[in-house]
Amino acid sequence: MSTYRGISLATFFGCAPAIDPHRPKDSFWYKILKDQVTPKILFDFICNPITHRNGVATHAPYGLRKVEAALLRDGYKREEVVVAHPDYVDRFIGPETEVVGTYEMDPLGMGPVTMTFTYGRKQTSYDEFYNRDLHMKINAAKKKNGSHAKVIAGASGTWQYNYDPKKIQEYGLYAVLEGELGGIAPEIDGHAGEFFNKLIAGEFENMNPFVKSDFKVEVKEFGKEGNKFHGRFIHYWDEPDVESIPNIVEPSIHGMVEVMRGCGRGCKFCDVTLRPLRYYSPEKVKQEIEVNIKKGGQRNAWLHSDDIFVYGLDPRKTKNMAPNREALEELFKAVMSCGIEHTNPTHGTLAGAIADEKLLPNLSKIIKSGPNNKTGVQCGFETGSLRLIGKYADRKLSPYKPEEWHWVVKEGVKTLNENHWIPAFTLIMGLDNAETEEDAWETIRLINELEREQPESQFTVTPLTFVPIGLLEKSEFFDIGNELTAPQLGVMYKTWQHNFKYGIQKFMDKTGSNNTLKKKAFTGLARTLGGVPLTAMEKYARKKGQEHERVIETIKTKYW
Fold this sequence. Notes:
Blueprint: E1 17-19, H1 28-33, H2 40-46, E2 52-53, E3 56-57, H3 62-73, E4 99-103, H4 112-117, E5 124-125, H5 126-145, E6 150-154, H6 166-171, E7 175-179, H7 192-201, E8 215-222, E9 229-236, E10 256-258, E11 260-261, E12 278-279, H8 282-296, E13 300-304, H9 325-336, E14 342-345, H10 350-354, H11 359-367, E15 375-382, H12 386-392, H13 405-418, E16 421-429, H14 437-453, E17 460-465, H15 480-483, H16 486-507, H17 516-529, H18 532-544, H19 546-558
Parallel strand pairs: 4-6, 6-7, 7-9, 10-13, 13-14, 15-16, 16-17
Antiparallel strand pairs: 1-5, 2-3, 8-9, 11-12
């Protein structure tokens, strides 16, 4: 629960390594930092805690606010439901407490960005560090206050407990709430009251799997002979229609509001595409923004979608997923009519951005994008490999074809930048463990071509390691700590070189918070520390051998 001081890209900082349990005790860095990787004092400064009122969080993650609103809608009284500040959970856990629910996005540091930054969990991320810290506080409060509350972990990261189930035992979890398809986060806000009623009544203790129910309980056995333990997983699959999804009643962090659910693009490596598309009406979006304005003092609105350019269309009926410009214009006009100063969508596809030449100019005019009011959006770059994009994400390009991917990327960056939008790209390393060395070099070359052909372009690129979710949930994790090839190291090196040379140096201070002093302070810090990862990768290459060193030198001389 942090605003990360209003710096948009700083929200990735939770993925940073916190602890290196393998650091030699006779090393220089151990003498300075012990086992800390990213100094805790630095992390805690950037990851500033939210405020509270007597221990009650003034702002909270949007999904948690949805559950809160659903419980109040479904019959629970205001005094029975509290969203606690993490540092003050002990104030709200006593003998009468029935349930403690935790909202976990990356609880064990297995998210794609985190796996990259921690070399495949060889180090402990701050996400995992503080998740454990929270559970230890909960357990201590239960013991101190005589509570028998059931602790249940929920939200989009709960799939990770299947891969490190000992944490279920360590944290004392009563259950882990999952969607029916494993990695899919259950949309519990549709029937939160029913779920909590069953939980409190103990109906999940011995639920009959042969009796039809919205909920299915699976008790999984882990461990070996003599050291076995069990974990309870509650599976739930609900697709509430928009009318069944409650509006938030208290402010969300970052002023985030949802505008749609689902995507429809069908990328095999993503679990969102398995959800049906539903769209909030502009009026429903406005109502949630007004909660953030009136109760949270927000002046920005972060519009959550999985592809904003799909808003308002039915991909089953719309040829080639052409954007519904009229619906998008109506949405953004409604958003700006609330009196906010800035808005930006969370995600969008490059193909959607350029499929209608009037779309971005019209939207930019509505939201007042300009040289000093940039609009950030996260886009999937995924890979420079035409082979991989065609195999795993062909509909991401609709209405274009996989062989046009390089053109789509270049034209997308050009069009976004011309309209004062900055894409924050993510790409996948080791996609389905099928990435060849040539695939990696294609990615390096495409980034370099963008730099040479559009030297004033503005974009960032963040490499993510492949994790088995979506239609690929039966695959294996890409083990970046042990399977990183020399060209894949080159991809990491090239992306960070680009981010440092172009992003941090040229345009970081033009995005995010409107607080100019705050921007300058954070940008100065980033410029000071930005070269550290490059130096670390060069050192790693020397340690690995000549092949890795040659890749780094090739990038320096040919693709810099």
